[in-house]
Backbone:
């Protein structure tokens, strides 16, 4: 599958993809119900110009995917943000290729930085685990206000703030190069063994933070009231 895509560090030669990338980010965010991530075509172009982005496209020139680097706390932390794959090309391993490329680029440009991400997507958690990220608490992420301001466009921002930025719907994952050097192994975290726990944790957060499940229980109890009692 990989031979049908070109995955490379973006430059001004890819400016013509910027509008489409933004439009897809916006419609995907709406579809997921996560609010609109505010990234303008100019911001995308700036990242391309700085050599801090990875773009994927088919041999025929059709846009396939994108991701970019942001750095925080005086370059002590790096996030690989805005991962997006064209809907028609999903589930063919493209996100995995893009994330590998942007991860390598991040390690080259910021060799000492901790690389982190916040996500509700199991596919992204799987890719991150394969790269050596491990789930962490929010306190282990950058405390740079500028990073957290980026969450303002998310529908769950109020929840994040009510928890004093210590928790929210997203799972935090981090790659710590210093720790990896010490441990001299790729990762402790086995996604295959733990994916059910991560999935359950997300369900618990949804019930606790959004009250989902309460509605379902209420509906079930109304339905039960309608049913004749078996001993009555
Ligand atoms: C999330 C997204 C980037 C995934 O792109 P993709 O190209 O379809 O992903 P891939 O095909 O590379 O799949 C990556 C891995 O995740 C796995 N995966 C996919 N969905 C999964 C799920 N629900 N649970 C567990 N693993 C999953 C795949 O099997 C694959 O693992 P493998 O290599 O071991 O087979 C894409 O769906 C997208 O653009 N979504 C909208 C934007 C978004 O959600 N971005 C992420 C913001 S954090």
Residues:
């Amino acid at each position: 599958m990989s031979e049908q895509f070109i995955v490379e560090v973006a430059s001004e030669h890819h400016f013509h993809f910027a509008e489409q990338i933004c439009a897809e980010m916006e419609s995907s965010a709406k579809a997921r119900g996560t609010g609109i991530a505010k990234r303008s075509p100019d911001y995308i172009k700036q990242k391309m110009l700085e050599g801090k982005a990875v773009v994927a496209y088919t041999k025929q020139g059709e846009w396939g995917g994108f991701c970019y680097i942001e750095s925080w706390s005086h370059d002590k932390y790096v996030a690989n943000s805005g991962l997006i794959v064209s809907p028609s090309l999903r589930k063919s391993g493209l996100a995995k290729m893009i994330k590998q490329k942007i991860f390598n680029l991040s390690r080259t440009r910021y060799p000492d930085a901790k690389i982190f991400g916040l996500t509700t997507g199991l596919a992204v958690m799987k890719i991150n685990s394969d790269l050596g990220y491990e789930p962490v608490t929010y306190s282990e992420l950058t405390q740079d206000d500028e990073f957290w301001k980026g969450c303002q466009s998310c529908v769950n921002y109020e929840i994040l703030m009510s928890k004093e930025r210590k928790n929210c719907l997203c799972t935090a994952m981090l790659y710590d190069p210093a720790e990896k050097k010490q441990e001299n192994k790729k990762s402790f975290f086995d996604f295959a063994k733990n994916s059910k726990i991560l999935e359950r944790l997300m369900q618990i957060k949804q019930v606790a933070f959004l009250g989902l499940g309460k509605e379902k229980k209420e509906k079930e109890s109304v339905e039960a009231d309608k049913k004749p009692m078996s001993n009555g």
About this structure: Confidence is low (pLDDT under 50) at residues 226-232.
